[in-house]
Amino acid sequence: MQPLTNILNLNIEEYKKLFDGIEVIVTDCDGVLWVDNEPIPGSAEMINEFRNQGKKIIFLTNNSTKHREHFLIKLNRLGFIAEKQDIVSSASIVVSFLKRKGFNKKVYLIGSTGLARELKDAGINHLEIGPDVIIHNNLYKTVDTFHADPEVGAVVVGFDEHFSYVKLLKAASYLNKQSCIFLATNKDERFPISSKIVVPGTGAIVKSIETVSQKAAILLGKPSSYVVKTLVDDYGVQPMRCLIIGDNCKTDILMGSRSGLKTLLVLSGLTKLPEVEAWKNSSNRDDSEFVPDYYVAKLGDLVKFVKKVA
Ligand SMILES: [Mg+2]
């Protein structure tokens, strides 16, 4: 089957062939299951139906600001059958990465409470989060009074609304040590909150620290291959037997294409069909990685179809 097929156009044999080979459904959350706090009609019914048919479901989000408990409450409230271990966030991938490395030092954390709690739950010590500003409006005094904690062995960066010059100074100073690990939960440039105000995202924070430290952060959220590594190592997922559902071709679909997962784009979120058609017809070979195998207007549109072919 050629990429970019409307999944509703498959015949019964094609559909069965596709889904008989799928053991795990990995679904993005925002733009697929809901938009902010509004559920997308039919998504819960479809995900639960996949589960009824014996598929393992993994909810995958790049959002590091919230603890997985928060996502679990939201999923259950919106009608999704889910348990905490079914949720993989960029914060939980940070934990998994550090655990795999046998990390036993402290983290200098630029982030918010969700990420801090995930580290704490895993027994990984971190320095305090929250506001950290210039002392008495005096940079020299601030520099003089900063005593780097020798126990810090990693700088972890997620979204932090209290990001400041002082945090930049401290992060870069810790990264001066050659052995210090530098991790980023995602590199999203902006939040799509307002059409008038530009709201900087984690990517802006990561880039400023990369500039000063002259080091590149290891990206752990989508589209990083570390996400797939986590799914394989921690969840026993076989990429070839996995379908990823997402609304963002530059994260969800790109990661799936690069790692050999089947990919399904829903048009209920960020990426629109004309963009995908342009990538499909592009002469730049890299653009083909943004093109999903299948697409559908919204996940709930599959419900009737799936029940018909079941
Ligand atoms: Mg999304």
TrEMBL record:
Its cofactor is Mg(2+). Mg(2+) binds at D28, D30, D247. PANTHER family: 4-NITROPHENYLPHOSPHATASE-RELATED, FI11325P-RELATED. GO terms for molecular function: metal ion binding; phosphatase activity. The active site is at D28, D30. Divalent metal ions. Mg(2+) is the most effective. The lineage of its organism: Eukaryota, Metazoa, Ecdysozoa, Arthropoda, Hexapoda. Belongs to the HAD-like hydrolase superfamily. Keywords: Hydrolase, Magnesium, Metal-binding. One of its GO terms (cellular component) is cytoplasm. This is Phosphoglycolate phosphatase. Substrate binds at K222. It holds the Pfam family Hydrolase_6. It comes from the Eukaryota.
